[in-house]
Amino acid sequence: MSWIDRRLDCMDSQMRDVLTGAALAFVLRGLGAGLAFALNVVIARMLGAEGSGLYFLALSLTMILSVIARLGLDNTLLRFVAAAASRQDWGRVKGVQRLGMRVAMAAGLGLSLLCYALARPVSEGLLDLPGLATPLRWMSFSVLTYSAMSLLAESLKGLKHVRDSMLVSGVLYPLFALVLVWPSIRLFGTEGASLAYALATGLSALTGWLMWKAALAPQVEAAKPFPISEMWASCRPLWVVTVVNGAVVPWLPLLLLGYWGSAEDVGILGAATRLVTVLTFFLVAVNTVLSPKISALAQDGEFQTLGRIVRQSAFMVMLAASPVFAVFLLFGAATMSVFGPDFAQGGGVLMILTAGQLVASFLGPGGFVLALSGWESKVRTAALISAVSMIFLSLVLIPQFGMTGAALASSAGLVIDRIGGAYLTRKHLGFHSLAIPEILVKRLHAE
């Protein structure tokens, strides 16, 4: 028997399930990360730093609006779909997903139209970037399409359709965009990149809808009416959390840099930010598998088992990402030069963002676990503290230090959020979420 076989025999069945599912998720997420990286390189090399800056500004505005449009339903749909599916209550599964999608699509359509209408006043009046107006108009449609794509992926995740969820949210849209972006940019310039993104997320959302229909086709039970008050009670505090983690922390520094800095600075910071997302694919891959298991274990009160799985998963994620951390920290300028010679000056920015991700990885996914365990209001408090801190740091650092200040503010906001999540997990669930080997945890408890 090999060493690996002996280690697997020693693991409990819960962790073996996570590792088995994570293997597939790693492959798909790795493929998606590679496609997204190729997409960003193509955009950067075809548009240059200034054109990329306009693209990333349009993207940041629409991503903020998309997070608002989803109303915190990402984790809510995942939680309720997973809980109902575990009981094979297919009428409730259909009912909650239908209600969530209708509410989010109405909000997404309204914000898409608002973004389209205000594209010129925002670009020329607020940011003093006339060249941003047309790319922002085209990108505005992605508020609706990206919202639909994200919620369909979370719904599929709740059914434990890991492969389909990962394909929709991580593989198909960069693949579609990569196919569309070259001819679109050749024909329309920066506007073409925005058009390719909107079309790609729309095609991915359509694919996700077809996958959802196919997954529930064998279940003939009709959808049960789901009380909107129950959904709102869950997603209301999570809305604040998703706005902070999905909009404020990753995108607001970029947007504020567009106000105080140049389009070239935004292009460099945007490229570095998108590059650092490669580090998160390990975490997303594991969380995709872990999400329904967290909901089920928390609902059953199995917090000791849940804590062990969370710690082991966090350590596994940090270990898997360590080579990428090392490359980004040691060879920042060389890595950024892949986007083009103008981007090499962003090496320091890449190192700052990577350091923030490294600390966040060590602190573990405490807030994510709390949100799926019924402690949404506590997660909201931690998210608000991190948002206020990051906004304050952005206002102080960006006017003085430009894109370096934006990177520092973004990393600080992420770390503060993870510190709050780790503390609250220990306080309310009784275990810590730090990426520490389980053998060390046992020794500490023994002492």
From TrEMBL:
Ranges annotated as spanning the membrane: 54-78, 99-119, 139-159, 171-189, 195-216, 237-260, 266-290, 314-336, 348-372, 379-398
Any keyword Membrane? yes
Task: Name the Pfam families for this protein.
Answer: Polysacc_synt
The entry's localization annotation reads:
Cell membrane
Q: How does it sit in the membrane?
A: Multi-pass membrane protein
Could you tell me the keywords of this UniProt record? Cell membrane, Membrane, Transmembrane, Transmembrane helix
What Gene Ontology terms describe where this protein resides (cellular component)? plasma membrane
What is the protein name given in its UniProt record?
A: Polysaccharide biosynthesis protein
